[in-house]
Amino acid sequence: MPADALLAAVIFLATLGPGRVPAPGEPGPLLLQVALVAPLVWRRRAPLTVFYAITAAAAVQWVAGVQLPADAALLVALCTVGAYCTGRQTLVAGLTLEAGALLAAARWAPPGQFPFTAAALTAMTAAALATGLWTRARRAYVTSLEHDREQRARLAVAEERARMTRDMHDIVTHNLSVMVALADSAAYVRHGAPEQAAAAVEQIAATGRQALDDMRRSLGAGEHGEPCRQAGARLQPAPGIAQLGSLTDRMRAAGLPTRLEVTGDPEAMPAAAQLTVYRLVQEALTNALRHAPGAAAEVRVRLTPRRAAVEVVDDGHPGPAPGEAHGRGLVGMRERVAAYGGTLHAGPLPGGGWRVAAGLDIGGDMAGKGTA
């Protein structure tokens, strides 16, 4: 509003001008000048009301036969209507001002100059209207950009939460399953084979430390604060293809005989894609450990420059693993694979056991789009 008040003052003084100050006994023109300009103070608060208030003052001016340059306030008011009012309101206001322009040209145009005067006033009306419409379109465009930016920010937050949920599920489920299996094993052999029990306890401690390390890394990846960066600096790189060997070692120690076969060059594979492969294998082996006691598992990873194929098979009991058909773990695996435009198949084998197979597109533009 202060800016609009300043605009009204500038228009008033500019249209008053030298030699245009009315005589002391003739306040009428000055009052009309004020009536034409003063409503502009509220032009953005009530644009339509201001326009018609100025139009009414201009009509009084026309009836009184007083020609004042403060009529320019009508153009500013019409521009504001175009910028802030609906299309229908803008059209009615534009036609109203055009009618007034033709009446003004008919009354004050020099003899024989009506067409030129009417054309000039019409051009000014059209320019004011176009300026208002452009302002409205520009404001709508900026608002749309802000909305898109906010939407992208919300999507980024949602994606980050989904990533952390997947990571927490994988880390907690896997490591707790391994620790429970090791604890059961230690309790079983603590009297007959204390050395094995001690080794199992050490493995439990190592698994717990690994879980804490993974959790710090996962949480640090989603934060930008200094404490997380400092904590992340002490952590090892995120697990990948090279860590599948230690993963299968832990699974064997927990009671799941596991065979690993990796073909291809993992060095050419993006780190994020390697982490996705690691999490897929980890989740599949954890499910086998939990739901197929006494089973053995095979892990096959085949890498090419543009694709990674992962297959985990166990020879457990026939039929689906309990709770896995719609569990959070399977949903998380599908989300990870979908981030790379891949496919995931999980289900029971005809002769017994469970198979998880996934294909990831890691070549071209997809190499940097996956989120693990």
From TrEMBL:
| Histidine kinase/HSP90-like ATPase domain segment(s) | 274-358
Which GO CC terms are listed, alphabetically? membrane
Q: List each copy of the DUF7134 domain by range.
A: 3-139
Give GO terms: molecular function aspect only.
ATP binding; phosphorelay sensor kinase activity; protein dimerization activity
Q: What is its EC number?
A: 2.7.13.3
What are the residue boundaries of the Signal transduction histidine kinase subgroup 3 dimerisation and phosphoacceptor domain, all occurrences included?
A: 160-221
- Uppermost EC category: transferase
User: Please, which domain of life does this record's source organism belong to?
Assistant: Bacteria
Keywords of the record = ATP-binding, Kinase, Nucleotide-binding, Phosphoprotein, Transferase, Two-component regulatory system
Which reaction is recorded as catalysed by this protein?
ATP + protein L-histidine = ADP + protein N-phospho-L-histidine
Q: What is this protein called?
A: histidine kinase
Which organism encodes this protein? Streptosporangium roseum (strain ATCC 12428 / DSM 43021 / JCM 3005 / KCTC 9067 / NCIMB 10171 / NRRL 2505 / NI 9100)
